Amino acid sequence: MSWMAWTTTTAIFFSTIAAILVVMTVYTLRYPCPERKGFLPLETTPGDRLFIGLLSSAYIHLLFLGLTDLSLWIPFVLSVIWLGIVMRWG
I want to staple 53 with a disulfide (CB 3.0 to 4.6 A). Which of 25, 28, 79, 83 is the partner? Predict the structure, then answer.
């Protein structure tokens, strides 16, 4: 893996995403949830909302990277807040 530019930050990021997916899988297997309708225009399960939240968080980061020179802590905080909103009310 010497051809890849793995930094500690990158390793923490991907480890966190993997941990979130494992926790969500265990939670869903232990406590199955029916689909529900929130502010999203479709019925979703918690796994669907997690996927939508993570995908939209990636887009938030890409927008900040492409349009500003601001610190990446700003989109990180926005993404965490957005993910919480989608998981709770989406």
Answer: 83
Burial tier of 9 (Cβ tally within 10 Å: 0-12, 13-18, 19+):
exposed
Residues in the chain: 90
Say what the pLDDT of residue 4 is. Answer: 67
pTM of the model: 0.80
C-alpha 7/C-alpha 1 separation (Å) is 12
Contact call for residues 87 and 53 (beta carbons, < 8 A)? yes
Return the domain boundaries, the chain: 8-89
Q: Which amino acid is at 66?
A: G
Element (DSSP H or E) covering residue 19: helix 8-30
User: Binning pLDDT at 50, 70 and 90, where does residue 26 land?
Assistant: very high
The burial of 77, by beta-carbon neighbours within 10 Å (0-12 exposed, 13-18 middle, 19 or more buried), is given as exposed
DSSP lists the bridge partners of residue 37 as 43
